[in-house]
Amino acid sequence: MDPLSRRRFLKISSATLGLAAGGGALAGAARAVSSSAASTPPTGLQKVPTFCDICFWKCGAIAYVRDGELWKIEGNPDDPLSRGRLCPRGTGGIGAHRDADRLRTPLIRRRNRGDEEWAAVTWDEALGHVAEKMQAIKSRHGPEAVALFSHGIGGNFLKHTLRAYGAINFAAPSFAQCRGPRDVGFHLTFGDGVSSPERTDIRNARCLVLIGSHLGENMHNTQVQEFADAVGNGATVIVVDPRFSIAAGKAKHYLPIKPGTDLALLLAWMHVIVSEKLYDQDYVAQHGFGFEQFAASLVGYTPEWAYPETGIQPEVIRETAREMARYRPATLVHPGRHATWYGDDAQRSRGIALLNALLGSWGRKGGFYVPASMDVPEYPYPPYPTSEKPQVDNPGGRYPFALEAITTGIREATVTGQPYPVKGWFVYATNLIHALPNEAETIRAIQNLDLMVVVDVIPSEIAGWADVVLPESVYLERYDDLNVEWFREPFIALRQPVVESPHDQKPNWWIARELALKLGLGTYYPWRHVEEYLDTRLKGAGLSLAELKTKGIVGGGTPPVFFDEGVAPEFPTPSGKIEFYSLQLQEKGFDPVPRYKKPPEGPPGTFRLLYGRAPVHSFSRTQTNPILHDMMSENAVWVNADVAVRYGLKTGDVVRLKNQDGVVSRPVKVLATERIRPDCVYLVHGFGHTATRLRRAYGKGASDAQLITRYETDPLMGGTGMNVNFVSLEVES
Asked: Looking at the whole model, is its pTM more than 0.85?
C-alpha cells in the first residue's frame, strides 16, 4: 500500500468519526436558543456546544445557560484544540455578551468622519443606504472599487456577498501585519506553510527553541498546553528575546538578544551545526537541494562574528547550537506567529525554516507534523462575476512572493487611486486604526472614500470613522460558517447561538444576505436561513446539522502524522525538495540564502519600542469585556531597572512616550524591571483607546499603535516591519 499522503482531504465515514464518539454525553442536553425561539426563557440548565471567537484559535467550548441566562463557558473535552480547557480569554467570553459598551443598533453618520455623531436607524434604512452607495460606486468606478478588510471566520458571508457584487479586493491584517513573513519563509523552503493553528508538535519536542515567541502570553491554547507538557517531560527550552518573557522563566538557556539581530544569531547557529557536521546528514542528503551552496554561504558567520551584533557570547551560541543538534529531529525551532519586525522578516523566517531543515524536524515527531482536513463540500453557489482588472494591493507583482492580499497595499491604492480608485471599504471585526501601522495614513485613505461600512460588536476607533456602523451579534448569539480545520486530528466544529442578542444586533450571515437582497443578488442566496446552508454542506459530507448541533464537533480519526509513520514526504518547491539554496529568490534578485543586514539605530537617548500580547486580551478587541477588563484594565511600559534609576523612576510612576516623529502617548504607568534590556521598552498591545464610546477602556494605558508611525516593508511579500520605532521617556510632573 502506498504511504498515506496527508495533503489529501480525509473522507468522512461512520468509521472515521473518532472525535464524535465522546459527544453523546451532550445528546439531549444541547439546546441553541435562536432569534426565532419562543420569548419564554427555558428553565433549568442547558449545555450548548459551540466554539470560541475571543481569538482566532477557535477552541471548542460548551456554554451553559441557567434559567435562560448565560452562566459560564468551558472547554469541550472532545475538541483537540482546547482539550477540554479554555484560556482566560475564552473563559471570560461571556463578558462579550454582557458588555455594556456594545453596539446596539445600526448607525448612520450625521456629521464629518471622526466626529462620532450618529443617527440610530433601522436595519432596512442602514442596508438600503449602503446598497445605494455601493450601486453608485459600481456605476462610476466598477465593483472592484469596493474592498473588504476582515478578520476571522465571521467574514465569510460578507465576502460572499461582495464577490457576488463583483468585488475582488479582500485582505486581512493577519497576513501583512502578522504571520505573512513566516508563511512565505517556510513556503520558500519547504513549499508549504505552517498552517493556522501551527503544525508544531510541541508536546513531543525534546528541545524547544522560542525566538521572540511568547508562549504563555499570546495564549494560543493548544500550544500553551503542549508547552506545559514538554516542560513537564523535561524538554530543554531555549528562549531568545530582549525581554525575559513568561516562557523565558521555563528556559534552560535564555539569550537576551539585541533587538533586530535575530538573523545574525540564526546564521551563527547554522554555521556551528554545519561546520561541526551536527546536522541530520541522511535527511539533508535525501531531501535537500542546494546544500553545498548554502553551506558555503555560512562560512563567515561565526559565533565570534555574531557576538558584537547580538550581544550573545560565542560560547553560548555554540553551546545552544549543540544542544539543538543533540536532540534532533525532536528539536523544534518555533516559527512564531507575529513575525513583522524589521522589514527583512521573510528572510529571517526562512532562516528559522532552514535551521529546522538542518535538524530534520520537518515532518518528524517533536518537530512539524503533517496536517489533514476533512472533506466538506462548498455550497453550490452560482459562479461569481469575473473581472479584467487586477487586484490593487500588489501592482505589477511588486512583492513577488506575497501569498495573500496586502492590507497596506489596498490602503495605498485608496490614497493614490492607482492602479485604479478604491472608493468603498467594508471593515469586518478588525480595528484598522490599531492593526495597521501609521494611523495618519489610514485616516488619509478613509478621507478618500465615498463609503466606509464597519461591522463590529463594539464602537472601536475604526467604527468612529465609518459612514455606517452595523452591530453584529457576538459569537455566543449566532451561527457562523463551519470550522473545517487543518490539524493533527482533523475535525469539523459548529458555532451556534447559545442565547439571544440583547438588543438590535444581527448575525453576520443575516447582514450579508439582507445586503445581497438589497443589491439584487438574491440568486446568490438560495437559502433563507443559515441552517439550510450549513445542513447542505454537512449532508454533502455524510453528516447533518442536527448531529453537529448536539455534538459540537465531529472528527476524522487520527491517520499517520509524520514521515516516519507512513506520510509520504512532499515538498511542493520548484526542485521538489527542501530548498537550502533558492533559485526562485535568486531569479527575482533576492538573496538565495538569507544574508544579515545590520538594523539602523534610533536617535540618541531613545529606546526601541517593542510590543506584544497579554494572556487575558485579544488585540484591541476585548478591553471593554467586563470580565477581562477586571483582570487587566490597562498596560504599563516596561523599563529596565537601571534606566529607571537613571530617570528617577519607580514602578507605578507615570510617563509619556514620545516617538521619533514627535507623537506623544497618553500617560502610562512604569514597570521598572530587570526583565528587559536597557536599549528597549515594551508595551502590551491594544490599550490607550481613543474612541469615546468605549467607556470602560477609554484612555486606559498607552497605545503602541499610535506610536508606530514608521514601518519597513518586506521586499519579498509586502509585510510591515513595525519594531523600527524609537521612543524617549517624558516624566510626568
From this structure: yes
